[in-house]
Amino acid sequence: MLKVAVVGFGKMGKLINELSVEQNIEVVSIIDPNKKIAYCEITEESVRNADVCIDFTQPDAVLDNIKKYCQLKKNAVIGTTGWFDNINKAEKLVQESGTGLIYSANFSIGVNAFLSIVENATKIFNKLQEYDIYGLELHHRHKKDSPSGTAKILAQIIKDNITIKDRINYERVSGQIESNVLHFASVRSGEIPGTHQIGFDSMADTIELTHRARNRIGFALGAIKSAKWIKDKKGLYNFREVFFNIILPQRH
Where are the alpha helices (DSSP H) in 98-173? Predict the structure, then answer.
């Protein structure tokens, strides 16, 4: 049975803990400086019995956390977003320590299937010049980053596959938008778990691809499956790059 340390005991950390029995993992440690629980920091003692650390903390804490995982020779799953400007530093730490780490802007199994669907769709619409394309994402008002990491991935997929789009605008548009600009808008309100929509619009019709999260279970399951996969591996991995290697074996 895989033994994990849950680092960050917010909504995602609590959900991973709740799902642990049915997912055949054992949570041996819970670490959070803001909660009255057993451990308030990452130390040799707090992660001693863990095979993998699953981190859903804060963007400004992630790089320091990764340093600690590497020093303590612990593999990790990083589900926190908003820190990817430091990815090169993280990769160097992981390589030098000989540990394994997997990260993602979104560990949801459904979202990663959605990314592949959007990629295939954009290749088709690249040949249909009468269609323009847009993106929209909605999240709860507590989310700290905007646009979402998933929105950025979707926008880059579109930019890479739609010849006419060579610039992305995540900000408010005043006036007419240029044809080479992909507009990807964000909304923050209430308790929305997460919605991402890609639209292809023409004079004749509109085609929309939408992923709408009902809850956070898909994210938690993806993180747990990633923890099982990364246990004995070395190096830095993006969940999207190895998504099918992680998910498809579960079907046999």
Answer: 109-125, 149-161
83-86, Cβ contacts within 8 angstroms, sequence gap of 24 or more: 83/59, 84/149, 86/62
**Residue 190: CB atoms within 10 Å:** 10
Give 110-212's CATH code, choosing from 3.60.21.10, 3.40.50.11720, 3.40.50.1380, 3.30.360.10.
Answer: 3.30.360.10
Determine the length of the chain: 252
> How do residues 76-109 score in pLDDT, each as one tens digit?
999 998 899 999 999 999 999 999 999 998 899 9
Containing H/E element for 61? helix 59-71
> Which CATH number applies to 2-107+216-251?
3.40.50.720
Catalogue the active-site residues: 139, 143
Instruction: Tell me the whole-structure pTM to 2 decimals.
Output: 0.83
Mention every residue, 6+ apart, whose C-beta is less than 8 A from residue 250. Answer: 225
